[in-house]
């Protein structure tokens, strides 16, 4: 006899309080735009953009920065092909094998896919099956004609079952609504085996438990990208199941159908543990609508239950969807955009993708799991994780300093500092998710995230502790050649791979430490890191004009092939043509090293105008979106088009940006040229569409490119309003004729952060021919370390 499910009805007043609270938390610090404009912003988002090609985005349900990303996982023959399925979903697939609750948006690496749930009508299979053999497993075919996706909501018809599946989400809870066909037994399958990439064999341990009140709880620990990751869940159903069966496929325990199993049958146990668990819950044949609520917790099953009680004590699917709608409407409503419909759709979808990570990673009581895999308590801030810092420090985090400085950026900094305190190594995260370090990519790029926030006056954290953490990370000798870097002034290639990239990225991070230390009145730290910020010069080869790697004896490594990229070369996910511009703190110094403006511009032109065979990068999955050597699909190229401004030729930046926007973005499923990388590609688009970009986070300057929107008003969280307008903006008029700021001529090619946050109006007048006299003088150029 199975215990009956104890349902908890949600009173209307409680529902309103719960979900209005969710909206308030999601959108704290966001100055809501007028309702109608915000609704238009919401309606413009297309979550399918980026789900094809190389974008690696997912179309499922999530709220801004939510811990749950509930989305369909589409079928493929083997999860070892996981790079293309890093988000769990590819638009060119035609089968779904379930809906899991955690997903990365746009990463170049696969993981997550936790707690997969699949509704079934009729016969039950315990394996996903082969896409070549319909009916061989529990997967179902589907048609894109039957899909619907909007922020916070996804729906699809599982055609093999005739089930309509709808998904929505709160911060810690995913909510499913299934409408079953008449006349067939209804089931819900819960599979704890699948993960993105390298499935099966990734689960170290898992548990399924049916509690007396009918709540299903469990945990799984995985040994994937972040080894030892634990995630707990609690699941409830709007109707009590008529039976259940747990299975461990390692022990080949079979599914025995609908009849209640004997008491000594292992499938009848209230709890089962193992490395390959799948459960089936049966529901009465007359079941038509079933609501399934699933809460996640990084701490414990009891924490997951508490999260479920706090966010979703009942089964009102529409209330959750409405709250998610409101949260996204207000978050997107920071921008009020007038533009062509494709531009509006592309812009608002980019904002949407930029507001997913870093994601919440704590229970409703503030507890979370840290990099030491121990449980900690967040005090006075909301703990977040999922930091793709090599990507996101460039544009995503600077975007958040404008549109969510207090509500999000302070949480980010406090979370980074907490992770440093709890780290066995005493340093800031490199690439971390669900609290754990992956050591992916290079640099110590939590440093510029903190420095940029500090320099912009965002100070809701202990600044002295922050500077100590930054210095500790920059001084941790065992990490990626830092010990030799501190001794030699560069990373030696005979001791450390990708040494040129590491040298110049460390130098930029060091400059941001110097900036923050100077502002805090720490002269010793300032001098030390200003000296280190100039280490890029140790990688510059005046004979070739490239940034290169040196050996320990001070000589450049030979032979040298500037087209060579990736593992075993001097560079990380790039080559000499792509990485030799990475001196964002001192572009004026790089121009001088090249021999002046004209030679620098000619060298930039050689990047964009080269004839390059894409097959050269077949071994590098991330190098995509080629324009000559320029590779917009990967981050090392993202600032390059803006560098003409530093050489006194901003009209050339305007030309290149038009070329990039036209060829690398489109409002369609394959509309991202490369991995969105947790919002970095999208944040680049947002900034560039506005008309400026943060080439050097920490400088407080944004380099002016050119606008791509006729008008955009930014409803800033401080209550101010900053409006950007462009006259005569069309394909024929792609050049800036003149610029005014608050009605006065702006004769420089940058705008300061304080000028945006003060509110006002930036106005562009566009024209068909380049204005070769605007912003060309040295004083009109953006910040460089050696010129200011």
UniProtKB/TrEMBL annotation:
GO terms for molecular function: carbohydrate binding; peptide-N4-(N-acetyl-beta-glucosaminyl)asparagine amidase activity. Residues 45-297 form the Glycosyl hydrolase family 92 N-terminal domain. One of its GO terms (cellular component) is cytosol. Gene3D superfamilies: 2.70.98.10, alpha-1,2-mannosidase (1.20.1050.60), alpha-1,2-mannosidases domains (1.20.1610.10), GH92 mannosidase domain (3.30.2080.10). InterPro entries: 6-hairpin_glycosidase_sf (IPR008928), GH-type_carb-bd (IPR014718), GH92_a_mannosidase_put (IPR005887), GH92_N (IPR041371), Glyco_hydro_92 (IPR012939), PNGase (IPR050883). Keywords: Signal. Pfam families: Glyco_hydro_92, Glyco_hydro_92N. Residues 304-767 form the Glycosyl hydrolase family domain. GO terms for biological process: carbohydrate metabolic process; glycoprotein catabolic process. This is Alpha-1,2-mannosidase, putative. It comes from Dokdonella immobilis.
């Amino acid at each position: 006899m199975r215990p009956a499910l104890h349902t908890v009805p949600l009173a209307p007043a409680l529902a309103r309080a719960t979900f209005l609270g969710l909206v308030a938390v999601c959108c704290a610090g966001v100055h809501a735009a007028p309702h109608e404009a915000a609704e238009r912003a919401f309606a413009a988002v297309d979550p399918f953009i980026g789900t094809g090609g190389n974008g690696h985005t997912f179309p499922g349900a999530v709220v801004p920065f939510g811990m749950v990303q509930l989305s369909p996982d589409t079928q493929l023959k083997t999860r070892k092909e996981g790079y293309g399925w890093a988000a769990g979903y590819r638009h060119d697939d035609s089968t779904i094998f379930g809906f899991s609750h955690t997903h990365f948006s746009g990463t170049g690496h696969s993981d997550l896919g936790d707690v997969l749930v699949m509704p079934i009508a009729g016969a039950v299979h315990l394996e996903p099956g082969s896409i070549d053999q319909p009916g061989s497993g529990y997967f179902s075919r589907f048609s894109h004609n039957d899909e619907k996706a909007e922020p916070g909501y996804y729906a699809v018809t599982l055609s093999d079952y005739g089930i309509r599946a709808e998904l929505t989400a709160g911060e810690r809870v995913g909510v499913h609504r299934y409408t079953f066909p008449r006349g067939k037994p209804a089931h819900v399958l819960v599979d704890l085996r699948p993960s993105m990439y390298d499935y099966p064999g990734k689960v170290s341990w898992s548990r399924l438990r049916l509690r007396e009140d009918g709540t299903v709880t469990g945990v799984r620990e995985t040994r994937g990208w972040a080894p030892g990751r634990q995630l707990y869940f609690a699941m409830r159903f709007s109707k009590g199941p008529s039976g259940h069966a747990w299975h461990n496929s390692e022990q080949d325990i079979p599914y025995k159908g609908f009849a209640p199993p004997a008491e000594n049958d292992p499938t009848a146990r209230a709890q089962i543990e193992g490395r390959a668990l799948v459960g089936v819950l049966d529901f009465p044949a007359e079941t038509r609508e079933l609501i399934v609520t699933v809460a996640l917790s990084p701490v414990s099953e009891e924490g997951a239950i508490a999260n479920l009680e706090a966010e979703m004590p009942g089964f009102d699917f529409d209330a959750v969807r409405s709250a998610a709608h409101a949260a996204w409407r207000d978050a997107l409503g920071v921008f009020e955009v007038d533009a062509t419909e494709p531009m509006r759709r592309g812009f608002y979808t980019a904002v949407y993708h930029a507001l997913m990570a870093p994601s919440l990673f704590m229970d409703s009581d503030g507890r979370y799991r840290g990099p030491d895999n121990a449980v900690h308590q967040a005090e006075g801030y909301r703990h977040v994780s999922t930091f793709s810092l090599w990507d996101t420090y460039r544009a995503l985090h600077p975007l958040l300093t404008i549109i969510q400085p207090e509500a999000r950026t302070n949480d980010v900094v406090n979370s980074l500092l907490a992770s440093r305190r709890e780290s066995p190594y005493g340093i800031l995260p490199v690439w971390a998710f669900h609290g754990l370090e992956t050591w992916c990519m290079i640099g110590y790029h939590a440093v510029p995230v903190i420095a940029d926030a500090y320099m912009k006056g965002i100070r809701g954290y202990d600044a002295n502790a922050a500077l100590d953490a930054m210095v500790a990370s920059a001084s941790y000798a065992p990490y990626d050649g830092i010990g030799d870097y501190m001794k030699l002034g560069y990373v030696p290639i005979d001791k450390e791979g990708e040494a040129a990239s590491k040298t110049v990225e460390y130098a930029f991070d060091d400059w941001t430490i110097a900036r923050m230390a100077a502002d805090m009145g720490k002269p010793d730290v300032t001098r030390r890191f200003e000296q280190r910020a100039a280490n890029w010069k140790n990688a510059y080869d005046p004979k070739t004009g490239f940034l290169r790697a040196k050996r320990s004896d001070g000589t450049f490594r030979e032979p040298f092939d500037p087209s060579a990229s990736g593992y075993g070369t001097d560079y990380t996910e790039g080559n000499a043509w792509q990485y030799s511009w990475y001196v964002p703190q001192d572009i004026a110094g790089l121009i001088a090293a090249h021999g002046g403006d004209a030679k620098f511009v000619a060298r930039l032109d050689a990047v964009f105008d080269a004839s390059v065979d894409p097959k050269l990068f077949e071994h590098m999955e991330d190098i995509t979106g080629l324009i000559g050597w320029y590779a917009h699909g990967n981050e090392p190229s993202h600032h390059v088009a803006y560098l003409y401004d530093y050489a006194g030729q901003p009209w050339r930046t305007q030309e290149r940006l038009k070329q990039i926007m036209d060829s690398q973005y489109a409002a369609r499923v394959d509309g991202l040229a490369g991995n969105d990388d947790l919002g970095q590609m999208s944040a680049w688009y947002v900034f560039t569409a506005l008309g400026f970009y943060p080439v050097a986070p920490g400088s407080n300057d944004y380099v002016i490119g050119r606008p791509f929107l006729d008008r955009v008003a930014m409803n800033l969280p401080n209550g101010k309003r900053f409006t950007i307008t462009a006259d005569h903006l069309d394909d024929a008029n792609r050049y800036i004729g003149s610029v005014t700021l608050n009605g006065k001529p702006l004769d420089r090619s940058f705008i300061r952060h304080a000028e945006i946050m003060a509110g006002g109006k930036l106005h562009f007048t566009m024209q068909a021919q380049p204005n070769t006299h605007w912003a060309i003088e040295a004083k009109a150029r953006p910040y460089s370390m050696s010129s200011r």
